[in-house]
Specification:
Serine Threonine Protein Phosphatase 5, Tetratricopeptide repeat, 4 domains, 670 residues, Rossmann fold, globular, 6-stranded mixed beta sheet, Alpha-Beta Plaits, alpha/beta
Length: 670
């Protein structure tokens, strides 16, 4: 590169037309005309905000701005007004200025990669840009977490630009309200940026100790950890908490200095602060001391769990294994680190618990033939954790995850009860809500899930669980907005699309369903194909559409000898009741060891049997015979814990269960 090359720092906005290729295939002339007209709109918006278009290629446009704030404001206008819809990416970085005014370099490439991961009619903004802007537009940026950019080695934090300010901005609770604490990610003051994982880990361990060690309600990590740097000042207002714990960590050699302070949000009064200089082997003790001091300041009772000091190298490995996405490859990497951790520190109970939890989660993606041996290993690891701490939540969760979906409902209920008895104000109820539906306890599941969500409102998994719990209960208040927000924050969360489609269908919002199904949205349907067929039939239950559902159901049975419980629920809902119960008598109801077996945490779970808005399968007395095959009748009779539907169906449910007592439970062995 020549010595007179000009470099500068610039904010780049990259955009392209969503679904351009598909539009061109449908009508090339019209699409070309639309893009030509769009160029004038884009140039006008750029000029209005002090920017310029420096490059175009087909449907793609590259814009330069001297101000990051102006660039984001322009991006918001472009995303909301351009027709056809565009995808937008914004990044601040170093660029090379060509003699013709074109710009090249890493800053341009990052903006283009962000654009490629954005949604139609939306924008993705890099953390570098977010750190430089203030005001209302900044409050519209919602963290998407860390993104792996295509064809780049680096991972960057990105923010989705919503079309309206977040609705969560309410005043914090008053001084008299029940204390609700958020623990912010402690600042890393070490000279090595790599130590951020360590300072995050200190904060996370304090969250776990506080939520378990007393009656104090604590905001979940996923929500509180979205507030870093200058965003920390927004945490109390956005999360609606009464108290904020913040601090810093400086690590050097074998020593660590941890500073922490507790602030009352309404008055901005510091209630407590302290600084600790210790050896790394004393980190657990410091976390307990901080937790105890906070509890005293808030007049709570904190109970320490017995924790032995841990070798610092083993503790480092443990802190590196906080799951972010639960993607199978991420989980495998963390399992390997935890295996090394417990090898170095065999008495480290928390590491055994996390290892058991992650291995149990990964097991749900294994072939069914391999699961028995994995379950045995998970059980051993969970027991190592519980021997050190009988209330270790990840270990108890691991035991829940290895309970088979069918046939072992007493074991499932016992695992749920162990989680419910935890003093943990967060983690346990996240899972009890999700799994209680499998037992037919829809109201209880909703109550647990609502509580979990209030303590972790920015957690996308908690929001998705809440949408499911509400739909199962036939309550759709806020469901659409929850799921639309999920899609904006996490476009790759394809099951949110399926849930939103189902919610809109049950609300009768067919125009909204059509928009979700629009092929120009480039939204892959993946495993949603069966759900789309059901939704189309619900919309138009004509003989031809019902016939197609029937053909698909019977074809699968004839080809495999099996059916999925969810398909029986859908089929009964559109009037195929006799076919449903004929298959329910003879078909295999679980996996068969083939490549088309369903995988994942929710595979073959029975929760959909009890959704309030699909009562047709339950309203037929033959439903009880199906439940007997699954093992549910055995559980209800032995435990006396009847499902909600026992008092809702048009027949004597309990007597019918007694009559079905002799029906053999299937041996599912998975």
């Amino acid at each position: 590169m020549s010595s007179d090359t000009t470099r500068k720092l610039a904010t780049i906005v990259a955009l392209d037309v969503a679904g351009y290729s598909a539009r061109t295939e449908v009508d090339e002339a019209r699409t070309t005309s639309e893009v030509a007209a769009l160029r004038k709109v884009i140039e006008g918006i750029a000029a209005k905000h002090g920017g310029r278009v420096f490059n175009t290629a087909g449907d793609g446009f590259m814009l330069e701005f001297g101000s990051s704030l102006a660039a984001v404001e322009a991006a918001a206008e472009l995303a909301s007004t351009c027709e056809p819809k565009v995808r937008v990416g914004v990044h601040l970085g170093d660029v090379v200025v060509q003699s013709n005014g074109d710009l090249l370099g890493h800053g341009v490439n990052v903006a283009a990669r962000l654009m490629a991961q954005s949604q139609p009619g939306a924008a993705l903004v890099s953390a570098t840009v977010r750190q430089t802007i203030r005001g209302p537009i900044a409050e519209r940026l919602v963290s998407r977490g860390s993104l792996k950019l295509d064809k780049m080695a680096e991972v960057i934090e990105a923010f989705a630009l919503g079309t309206a300010p977040t609705p969560l901005h309410a005043a914090p609770p008053t001084k008299d309200a029940e204390p609700l604490l958020t623990v912010l990610p402690f600042d890393n003051l070490s000279t090595d940026p790599e130590m951020q994982f360590f300072s995050d880990g200190v904060s996370e361990e304090i969250i776990q100790r506080l939520s378990r060690g007393g009656k104090l309600k604590v905001i979940g990590r996923t929500s509180s950890f979205q507030f870093r740097g200058e965003k920390k000042g927004e945490a109390a207002r956005v999360l609606k908490c009464s108290h904020v714990l913040d601090g810093s960590v400086r690590r050097a050699g074998g020593r660590v200095r941890i500073a922490a302070h507790l602030v009352e949000a309404s008055s901005q009064t510091t209630l407590w602060s302290d600084r600790y200089d210790r050896g790394l082997e004393d980190t657990f003790a410091v976390q307990d001391e901080i937790s105890e001091s906070i509890s005293e300041a808030l007049h709570q009772t904190f109970t320490r769990a017995a924790t032995k000091s841990v070798d610092p190298d083993a503790y480092d490995l443990y802190l590196r294994t906080t799951a972010k996405s639960y993607a199978p490859d991420e989980v495998r990497t963390h399992i390997a680190l935890l295996e090394e951790c417990v090898k170095r520190a065999p008495h480290f109970g928390a590491a055994w618990g996390r290892l058991a939890h992650l291995r149990a989660f990964l097991r749900t993606y294994e072939p069914y033939a391999a699961r028995a041996s994995t379950a045995a290993r998970v059980g051993q690891e969970a027991q190592r954790a519980l021997a050190a701490d009988p209330q270790d939540m990840p270990a108890l969760l691991a035991e829940l995850l290895i309970v088979p979906p069918f046939g072992s409902f007493a074991e499932l209920d016992a695992a749920l009860d162990r989680l419910r008895r935890l003093p943990d104000s967060l983690g346990g109820k996240f899972w009890t809500g999700a799994f209680s539906r499998a037992l037919g306890r829809i109201a209880e599941a909703l109550e647990d899930t609502e509580l979990t969500y209030t303590l972790d409102t920015l957690n996308i998994l908690a929001a998705n669980q809440l949408s499911l719990a509400r739909m199962a209960a036939g309550r759709y208040e806020g469901v659409v907005s929850l799921l639309e927000d999920l899609m904006a924050r996490s476009p790759d969360m394809h099951f949110a699309v399926g849930n939103l489609m189902r919610a809109q269908a049950f609300l009768g919002n067919w125009d909204a369903v059509d928009r979700l199904l629009d092929p120009l949205s480039n939204r892959p349907l993946r495993e949603l194909q069966d759900g789309v067929l059901f939704i189309n039939t619900k919309r138009d239950p004509s003989p031809s559409n019902v016939g197609r559902m029937r053909e698909r159901l019977l074809a699968r049975y004839e080809a495999t000898g099996g059916v999925e419980v969810s398909q029986l629920v859908y089929a009964a809902h559109v009037g195929l009741t006799d076919d449903v119960f004929r298959l329910a008598e003879t078909a295999r109801l679980g996996p068969r060891g083939a490549s088309d077996d369903v995988l994942g945490v929710d595979a073959y779970r029975t929760g959909l049997l009890f959704w309030n808005d699909m009562p047709e399968i339950r309203n037929d007395p033959r439903f009880v015979r199906l439940c007997a095959r699954l093992g549910l009748v055995e559980f209800w009779l032995q435990s006396g814990k009847w499902p909600d539907c026992a008092d809702q169906v048009p027949y004597d449910f309990r007597t019918a269960c007694e009559s079905a007592r002799a029906i053999a439970k299937e041996r599912f062995n998975f």
